[in-house]
Amino acid sequence: MQPYAPTSSLNIFLVLPKAELHRHLEGSLRIGTMLDIARKHQITVPASILRLSGLVQIGDEEPYNFNNFLEKFKTLRLFYRSPDVIARVTREAVEDAVRDNIRYMELRFTPVALSRAERFPLHDVMEWVCESANRTAEKFRIDVKLIASVNRHESPELAEQVAWLASGMQDQGIVGLDIAGNEAEFSGKPFAPIFREAKESGLKITVHAGEWGGAENVREAIEVLGADRIGHGVRIMEDENVVALAKERGTVFEVCVTSNHQSGVVTSLKEHPLTKMIEAGLITTINTDDPSISRISLSGEFQMAHEKLGLSMLTLKNQTLNAINAAFVSDKEKERLVKEFKKG
């Protein structure tokens, strides 16, 4: 099945003010920017947009599976060659959100991935992202917060460094700590003390779980890692006891429909469990995950959820309100955002 192609009625969804909680900086690079960086830094990549896109975006004829999806990041990691590059891709990610009428966004980034190509100090990388995101957000009057992300298939020692730095940068817009990576083969338990300390420092916690691993990983995220929100979490529907736990705790799910299809979590868009999650009383939100890799926008995801999954316009608006109420900001800030969104 080919990815869903939005039609001209996308404008209806574009005018809706939106909020996004789950977007990776590393999956948001523009193709043109990559070509420009490659020329300036002499990175060996295909000279044409079409050929480069095949390395960093999911194509219509490609296999939709975990390995192919993650393969795109191997090429993307080649591009973070200077402070200016990292500042630029951050700025453009915020600008693209503004064009999509996103009024509030939490942009997550992986300092270790951004630092690796040139072995930049983690603190410097995080400073560059914060400065660029804050400057661009102020320019375009969009609310942007940042989430520092670590990988469960990498060492807890690296995660501890990132968490410690993030805790000290809350005044620069970092509001949360995330763990992503290969959940099928790596437990989150070794990271539990790190996430507990991060939460005690004031950071909120979001955990990738129930995507390539089963519902038991969602339970682990809630009970062991102290997750306030779950990234993806769609496989929770495999266990009614974990559904009950999430409802009891008020856990919020950052659902990424097209991403789940392209990475092989669900076999087709129509079979995506978002509707069942909503019907079960779970708190869900709609997000893009990696808009450049998936060749999507949040407006397009809203349209797809309406036309393919049958979500009403009222339900879609409620997904946005869910996102605002689950934002990693103060209650006073949430009240302000809700008022702004209801004005349109």
Q: What would the CATH topology be?
A: TIM Barrel
Helix content: 40-55%
What's the Cα radius of gyration?
19 Å
Q: In total, how many beta strands?
A: 8
Distance between termini? 35 Å
| Order of strands in the sheet with most strands | 1-2-3-4-5-6-7-8
**Beta-strand share of residues:** 5-15%
- Order of SSEs, N→C? HEHHHHEHHEHEHEHEHEHHEHHHH
Uncertain segments:
none
Number of helices: 17
The biggest beta sheet is recorded as: 8 strands, parallel
CATH superfamily label: Metal-dependent hydrolases
The assigned structural class equals alpha/beta
Characterization of this structure:
The chain has 344 residues and is α/β, with parallel strands linked by helices. The chain has one domain (10-343): TIM Barrel, CATH 3.20.20.140. It is built from 17 helices and eight strands. It has an eight-stranded parallel β-sheet. Strand 5 (204-209), helix 10 and strand 6 form a beta-alpha-beta unit. Helix 10 runs parallel beside helix 11 (240-249). The longest helix is centred in the middle third of the chain and has 19 residues, at 122-140.
Name its key features.
49% helix, 8 strands, single chain, eight-stranded parallel sheet, alpha/beta
Concise structural overview:
The protein is α/β, with parallel strands linked by helices and 344 residues long. The protein contains 17 helices and 8 strands.
Write the layout of secondary structure elements.
Layout: H1 10-14, E1 18-24, H2 31-41, H3 49-56, H4 66-76, H5 83-99, E2 102-109, H6 111-116, H7 122-140, E3 143-151, H8 156-167, E4 174-180, H9 192-200, E5 204-209, H10 215-223, E6 229-232, H11 240-249, E7 252-255, H12 257-262, H13 274-279, E8 283-286, H14 291-294, H15 298-307, H16 313-325, H17 331-343
Parallel strand pairs: 1-2, 2-3, 3-4, 4-5, 5-6, 6-7, 7-8
Helix pairs in contact: 5-7, 10-11
